[in-house]
Amino acid sequence: MLLFRTEPSLFVSPLSEPQEIDFKAAEQEMERLKKSNQIIKSKSVIHDVRLMIHVESPLKVSQNVFVFGSVAEGSQAVTNAFLEFPYIPSSLKVTAHASYINNYGAPRIIDASALLPFIVVAKPCPPVKEAEIKIMIDINKKPLLLNELFPDMFMDGTSSYSGGALGIEYYSGHSVTIMPSKTAQRYRIQSDQLSALWLVVSELVRRLQHKFRKEPDNSKLICSFTSPLPLPEYFKIIEDHFTGCSKETSH
């Protein structure tokens, strides 16, 4: 079994005052983390095991290669997952690749993947009412309250105001606000940086799919994006990237 310990505190400022903790939400989040921590588990003895762990930069694990002579049920490998640099990662996905020799002497390779907790890369912050870039996600269900979808972001009581919005700040310093509509079946996600939107949008859709996975009417959740694509901002990010690369090469 492979266990991940997360270290979001690398870029978290200490709280100035004690905060009340929602223990029920914390317990629910802990159960979710326990499920995501169990990546590989052996039910029988296998030999010559080589386990490799991969995450996308700037995420990093404290140990990415494990070698075992043999692995039996109950064996485990433990590694810490954290942000090496305060940038926004493209994905929270962690992949484990294992090669081994089975009981019949035949080589085998297996892969497994999971998602790291969102709090590894972001923390709650006060939401903002206006931002330069906005994306609307329409759904075919009644919008859920954000404290139901993101209990891990409401544990300190600082991320929401009376309108039900959620503020999220990456450890890069970029912030994103999610606002559920009061009159329509949609969410508005906004930020001053286009690059900050992707991970939050992906996490919102994933959590909505999880919440609506067992609907009584068995109707499938549909998420749609009908607004114009923010192509000027997208092309500017690409241009800035290549400009930065050119400057580094010239030096």
TrEMBL record:
GO BP term, example: cilium assembly
InterPro entries according to UniProt: PHTB1_GAE_dom, PTHB1, PTHB1_pf_dom
Pfam families: PTHB1_GAE, PTHB1_pf
Chain ranges of the PTHB1 GAE domain: 40-111
PTHB1 platform domain: residues covered: 117-226
Gene Ontology CC entries for this record: BBSome; membrane
The protein, known as: Protein PTHB1
Source organism (scientific name): Caerostris extrusa (Bark spider)
